[in-house]
Each structure stands twice: as structure tokens, then as C-alpha cells.
Amino acid sequence: MPSENLEREPSFITGMGGSAGALLAFEKFFSAMPPRSGIAFVVVQHLDPTQEDMLPEILQRHSDMKVLRIEEGMKALADHVYIIPPGKDLAIIHGVFLLLEPTANRGLRMPIDFFLRRLAKDWGERAGCIIFSGMGSDGSLGLKSIKEYLGMVMVQKPSTAEFVDMPQSAVDTGMVDYVAAVEDMPELLIEYIRHLHAPPAPLPMAEWSETLQKILLLLRDETGNDFSQYKINTVSRRVERRMNVHQCDSIERYLSYIRKNPHEVHLLFQELLIGVTSFFRNPEAFEALKKHLKDYLIKDERDSQLRVWIPGCSTGEEAYTIAIIIKECLEETPGSAVREVRIFASDIDKDTIDKARRGVYPANIVADVSPGRLTRFFDQTSDGYSMKKEIRSMLVFALQNLISDPPFTRMDLISCRNLFIYLSAKLQKKMLALLHYSLNQGGLLMLGTSETVSNEGNLFHPLDSRWSIYQRKDVPSSLPQIVDIYPVRRLPGFIDKEDEVGKMEDVVPSVVQRVIQEYYAPPAVLINEKGDIFYTSGHTGKFLELPVGKANMNILAMAREELRFDLSRSISQAITRDDDVVMENIKLTNGEGRPAGVNLIVRKLKKPESLRGLLLVVFKEMEAAETEILNKCPHPSEDEASAVAELKEELKQAQERLRLSADEATASHGELQLSNEELRSTNEELQSSNEELSTSREELQSLNEELITINTELQSKNEDLARAGNDMQNLINSTDIALLFLDKELRIRRFTAPLKRLINLIDADIGRPLADIAVNLDDLDLVQSAGEVMEKLVVKELEARAGDGRSHMVHITPYKTLDNYIDGVVLTFIDITDIVSLRRHKEILHEARE
Length: 850
Fold this sequence. Notes:
This protein is of the alpha/beta class. It contains 24 helices and 30 strands.
């Protein structure tokens, strides 16, 4: 029986999320959980809204705490277990539960994430969550919010879970404090809370700071990142949380633990990074940004490229969110001159950058991304969703430390949300000056809702104070000029190898300038192996010109006729060789019709890595003296001239045949392109059908989880019924009382063995009408009496004599079900022979006395 609990506020609230296969884990957990811990437990499970929920009754048998189904306005109390009702989303504010109607489709609901996010905001460091067995990834976003607010995260060991998807998805976030078997969880939870409410042993501030600096030194040596300029309170709270996880009573013990367990340095590093992010976090903030960005795009006519920087991008959700916002802005602003978008997203953690580059996210992002955007900008995968190429190609992810590394420059927008609140005031001032330096005139800066530029108001003009959106003022930057060589030294390492070469234009100018200095800066062109031009240097008009008709930025199409053959051969040779290819003494005619000469040099680039495989074509114009010598060469004889003319005619015919072949190839290309468009259209239709099937699959998966839960509950109920049936059978057999159970049609339903002495019954008689059975009772019509009880719903007691002369009391009552429904009659036969004999003796004695 549950014990009576005092109605007091809990010291800690634990959200427990589970899906398919979680019922057994819940039972084990509460069987091991002491009833007096001061904790309130909230169980959120995927439940079928059309079925009756039996979870409270099942869990009550395994816990001495009071188990309740949550009702609107119910207050969380210590030592209570609360169960979410089916078909509802659950929130909590000031310890009071609120039930909400779900807005997402049944197959796309994430009730665990929904509750954990609100629990984190309401209870902060006094909130925790435990993720149990289940399918899908529900809970992995919610636990990030728990960690953001310094709460505790525990996960069932995947190897012990019936369905590993939910526990494994939680572990993959890298934010889990404990991974344990269910039986060990209660002890870990209680010890964690005990240390949470028992502060570390007091230390003088000087000693605390000294030990903390040693910890930060270990962090810097191991990770290369210096956290000494972070706010001391922020760092201390994160360190204390790790101390609590490992149950260290003093910071010296924690320092000793770190030195003995180097892996803890990386865990503390992750703790200090506070890498909590999600798609469209604070949706109203992004709507405000969208409005100001549209205004900026309409007014800004300086460049056709829009440049954006997102420092501290973590796993990339915010970077992709801004890419989607920009894409929508460009579609809704047709008058903008922007033709290309370049988004640089950086972070100091290599693991998070790697995740961001992959652009693959779990299925539970449906809680943050609207269905329209999900279809428009994401591709569905077996594990969740991936970014479409049109969005992924806009971004370049880079490993960078905002505090110590040089910044990106010439930016139109910088989004640096929820980073400044963790930095010291001195470092904040430095970072604001740096961001001012990085922005173009009139560029936009977006900070977190708790951050401001009030101390550096001379640098930025507020556009939206509520959502911390600012515009750069046109004032001189307080930062010293960064040397021009910086892009050459830093940026090549930032180039994402998966991006197209077109993404390298920020590094190309400096690299090309450095290489062609070896040739005294002659005209040069950077191309790929197909001849497509990426960059030009110097005056190339003597050698290249735009072809007639549609613009074609291919060097072979633009090269002058005298150069085309030698240029094509040089490029082909350079592709297959490691050395430079040099073509000397190529005759040209200058603009005035006089002969000129040029030396052609083609070099295949090997460094830097980002430009490997590209070709640098250098046109080295011959000196006047060299040209004069070339022009003084002996003129050919008449025979030689005739041969040359014949060769020219053959060349002309070959060129004509080549042109015809090119025309045929162009026509074939057009047909192939048309076929490709038809295939693309078919592919889009198939993709649309696939998305519909994927949605149906998710709904079926959700329904399957609910059915598994219901099946588990029914199995538990069947076990209870089996035990109750056994108890009743043993009770009936032990009483030695003759009982007869009849249904509404007075057919035999069940009887006990002692009844066979009165009525000739065998097991095969079950189901036969009572009227067909011979009854060894005088002066009693059992069928008539039972019918009267069924009709009038009254209890009858009758006496009857059996064929052997023994007397019996027949007690006839209606048969009632648990829901008070009459479903037959019950006849009880009690042997009263001794009582009747005693009564007759009394009558005889009484008559004798008279």
C-alpha cells in the first residue's frame, strides 16, 4: 500500500521519458527507489490517445509513493509519481502542471522533449531527466535544455534496453552525466541530489581561485583553449556541477580526479562550451532579423555577394537556420542585387564542427522546424533529416577561436548569440570592437536576448532592442589593422573540402598574387582542368577576348585563334605532368596589326591544399628585341608557301568538321538536358511520394510504439487476472461449499465438486441448461426459483431435502459484474441437516413439556 506523503515542495524534479519497452524499466526503477527521497517524478511516455491508460495502476504496485495521473493545475509534491495522460502535451510553471492540446501530428509528436524543455526553464539546476528504452530520438533535444540550465542527465545503458534508439540518441549528444543500468539509477540519483544540496567544503577565496586556475591550466594544455577570461562565476558553477557528478566534496579532490582521469578534461571542456542550440531558437528573434535583413538587402548595392559570420556555431543548427532565413529573404526580395551568399560558421570544438559539416539531424527537429520548411529545405533519411544541397552549399564551417584567432572580415551580418553573457566585461569590450571591425559599413549584428552593446554604444546603432539586433555605425575601428597576408596564412585551412572551388574566392586572390610574383607579375589566369576561369590577374586582353554570342568563361573559348591550339596542348600536357609546360615564340598580331610574340607557361598547382589540381596559365610577352629577331627569320620559298597554304586549307576543313561535330554535340547535349529535366521532374515526384510515405512510416512507427506499450500493459493485466483466477479457484476448493454459477439463460457456467452430491453433474455439463439436469432435491424447483431471482433481482433463501434425506439451505443471489451488470445467478447449497434435526428435537421437547 502507498504510504501517506506530506504535501511539501520537492527538492528535485526528475522527468522520465520512455517509449516502447520502457514499462519494465519503470517497474524496476520504482521498485528500487526509496519512498522518502524528497523527489517528484514525472513519467512521460508515448501513449495511444484512444486507449485507456493503465500505467498509474501498474506502477502503483511497484512503489510506495503515491502514483497519480496528472490533471490540469495539479501541483508537484515530493515523493509523488505523476503520469502524463494520453493525447496531451505537458508543461510546468512554478511547480504547477499544465496540460496542452498537441499541435503536431500524432506521428510527429515529441512529448518528452516538450516537457523537458519547460522543466529545465522552471526548475533549473534542481531538474533532471532520465531517458529509458524506446524507438526514435525523443528526449535528446530536451536533455540539452536540462544541461543548459545546469541540470542532471541520466540514460539507461543501451545494452540493457529493449529498444536502444532513444538511449543511444541521448548518449550521442555527448551531454549525458550517467549511463547506468536501471537498478543502479536510484542510488546514483539520490547521491547526486545529496551533493547538490551539500555545498563543497568551504575554502578561502584565494585558495579556491588558485585551484581553479590550475584546472584551467590543465584545460588549456589539453585543449589549447584559455577559459581564464570567462566570467569566474560561470566557470565556478560548471566546475561545481562536475564535482557534484563525481561526488567530490572539495575542489582539491576534483583537481586530483582530473589529473588521474584525463578524459574528464574533455568532459569539463564540453561543459564550459555550453553548446546548446536548436533550429529557430526564439522564432520571434529570427522573424525580426528577417525584417531588418530585407531592408538591408534592398538598400545595399555595393556587392553581389552577401557575407555572413556565425562564431560559436556549435553543431550548426543556428547556422543552417540563418541560411534558411537568408534564402527566404532573397526569394521575397526580388529587387536585391545579391547573387551569391557566403556563410562562415566557426567554433572551437572540432567534434561539433564535424557534426555541423555533416548536416544530419535526428527526427525530433520536427518540434522546431515547420512542416513547410522541413519539406522545402531538408531531405529525409532513415535516421532523421539532412540539409538539402542548396542550403549546405551556402556554408563553410571552420575551426576557430573567436578570442585568439583573427576574425573574418567584410561581413554583412554577424550572429553571435548567447556567448557574451559568459565572458568578462573586459573581454566583451574587446569582442565588440572586433565584431565592429569585421562588419561592413551598415552591417547587422545579432546578439542573444540577454546581451547588449550598451558599453560600446558608439560602435553600434540599435535596430531592435528586444531581440538585440544592431547596425554598425560608420566610425573608425579601435582595432589595429590586420596585415594583408592574414587571409593567405589562415583561410586555406578553413576551406571545406566538400565545397565547390567557387567557395575559395576569398583565398584565391592572395594565393595567385604570391605565385605569379615568380614571373614578375605577367598576365595570368587561374583555371581548372576543364578550362573554366576562376581568377585573372593583369591585362589579359591581348590574349583573351569574349566570344561572340552567349558569354562563355572558358579559356579555350576566349583565347585568340593564334593561341588556341598551343594553349589547348599545353593544358593537356600540364594535367599529366608534374613540371611546368612552356610554349615559346608563339606568333601573334597586336592591336595595330604588327606581329608580336608571347611565351606561354602552364603550371599545375600543388599548394595550398585547397587549390591543389588547379592550373595557372601565364602569358609572358616577348621583348621588342626578341620580336624583331623573330620577324627577321627568312621568309619561306614559293613551294614552302604553297605547302603552307595547302596545310592551312586542310586545317580550315578540319576546323569546319570540328565545328559541325561541336554543333551535333551541342544538339545532343540539348536533348540530354531535356531528358535530364524530365528525369529531374520525375525524381521530384518520386521524392514527394517518398516524403508522404516517410510521414506515413513515422505515424505507423508512433502507432507501433503505442501498441507495444498497450500490449505490455495488457500482459501485466493478464498476469494479474491469472493470479486472481488462481486465488479464487483455491478459495472455492478450500471451502467445501457446493456452489453453482448460472448465466442469464440459466445455463451452467461453473460448479464446485461438493455440488455433485446433490446434482448429477460432470465437467461436460458446463454450458447445458439447468432444466436438462436431474436435481436430487425434493419440494424445490431450482429453475423456477433462479428465474425469479433473475427477473426481480432479489435474494432468495429456500430449504430443500436431498434424496439421501439430508437437508440443505439454498441461497440464490444475482451474479453481478465489476461494473454492476447482472449476468446470471449464484446458488449456494449449505448442509443444515444437523440444524434441522436440532430444531425438530426442540419442537418435540417443547410439545412434551406442554
